[in-house]
Design goal:
The protein is mainly beta. The protein has a single domain (about 15-330), classed as monomeric porin ompg (Porin, Beta Barrel), CATH 2.40.160. It has helices at about 15, 320-330, and strands at about 30, 35-50, 50-55, 55-60, 65-80, 85-95, 105, 110-120, 125-135, 155-165, 170-180, 185, 190, 195, 200, 205-215, 220-230, 250-260, 270-280, 285-300, 310. The strands form five sheets. The chain has a twelve-stranded antiparallel beta barrel. It has a two-stranded antiparallel sheet with strand order 1-21. Strands 3-4 form a two-stranded antiparallel ribbon. The N and C termini lie far apart (about 65 Å). The relative contact order is 0.20.
Length: about 325
């Protein structure tokens, strides 16, 4: 049995896994205008064969390639031009390509957050975001890397700097601290740094850093991004042992975002993303790609052509005329 469980866990961190899918998400500087809703659906594929057991990169032929497929619902609503509320809910399926272990599937955790522009100048937005996540059902967490999640309730706080440059270029940097609740599992003893005679696993908190740079306008988006996760503690997967949800899960990855808002489809946005984990600790050497569709809906009672709808791309103008004029020009092409 130890040989079967000689593998690593790829952490399902809902505040990280879907953040790079849509432009109007929890870790960027794009906002929906007041009374506007952005709704979307994403398909994500995450697969790995090699993994880091601690800092040792290796493979496990009892698992083969572990593939995680997700269908993610996203929504972002503009309460005001400076205050947005966001939500995500994924359905996840995890399967290995080899061995006797069966994968799992189901709805994972609901994540809710608010995002607010605290300071805004001509080119710079200083943004704060707070939120949290909660499991939507009693899925089994203590079965990594084939579990769909870790059953931990979370609260997170994020700071974002969004700076715009000429030619519709922009730079975004963000940092997030996530506090996680402990998790009760279906066994009365577990071993991490020592033996614990309890069914409650102590979950370390998580810090994430990210940055992206590239072109963003109403119609087009093409950006490169960088993400890093650092988990508290120093508990690695023991050699030839089953991983625990309380292990340390660190990674550094790079990727890209490419999107276009199609005029012939009433401005439905088509987005493709890709990323690769370059280095890690107790995580898989993942290749990740996604395909997403999103649509804007204007729920304002009194609509005016001088008031923007959809995303607010450029900070600094009180009336956001830069974003609305860009949108109007594109709509008439």
């Amino acid at each position: 049995m130890k040989k079967i469980f000689r593998f690593t866990a790829l952490m399902f961190c809902v505040v990280g896994s879907s953040q790079n899918i849509f432009s109007q998400m929890m870790n960027d500087g794009i906002f929906m205008a007041k009374g506007n809703l952005c709704g979307g659906l994403i398909y994500m594929n995450d697969s790995w064969k090699n993994y880091w057991e601690g800092t040792l990169l290796r493979e496990n032929k009892n698992l083969g390639t572990v593939t995680t497929q997700s269908i993610i619902l996203n929504a972002n609503y503009g309460i005001t031009n400076r205050l947005n509320v966001l939500a995500t809910l994924p359905y996840i399926t995890v399967k290995p390509s080899a061995g006797v272990l069966h994968g799992m599937s189901g709805i994972q955790d609901l994540t809710l957050a608010v995002k607010y522009i605290a300071i805004q100048t001509k080119h710079l937005s200083v943004i704060g975001s707070v939120g949290g996540s909660i499991p939507t059902n009693n899925y089994v967490a203590d079965f990594l890397p084939l579990a769909i999640g870790v059953q931990s309730k979370t609260i997170f706080a994020r700071g974002i700097l969004y700076y715009t440059l000429p030619a519709n270029l922009s730079l975004t940097v963000n940092g997030t601290y996530t506090a996680r609740s402990n998790v009760r599992v279906d066994r009365e003893m577990y071993y991490s740094d020592r033996g614990y005679f309890t069914n409650e696993m102590v979950m370390p908190n998580v810090v994430n850093f990210g940055a992206k740079f590239g072109h963003y306008s109403y119609r087009w988006q093409l950006e490169g991004n960088f993400d890093q996760q650092i988990t508290g503690g120093n508990i690695d997967i023991r050699r030839n042992d089953m991983p625990g949800i309380c292990n340390k899960f660190d990674y550094t990855k790079v990727g890209f975002i490419a999107a276009y808002r199609v005029p012939q489809l009433k401005d439905i946005q088509i987005m493709v993303t890709g990323s690769k984990v370059l280095t890690g600790r107790n995580v898989g050497e993942s290749m990740i790609f996604s395909l997403g569709l999103s649509k804007y809906f204007d729920f304002r009672k009194n609509r005016s052509s001088e008031i923007p709808s959809g995303p607010i791309c450029r900070p600094g103008d009180v009336n956001h005329n830069a974003g609305s004029m860009d949108m109007k020009k594109e709509e008439h092409k």
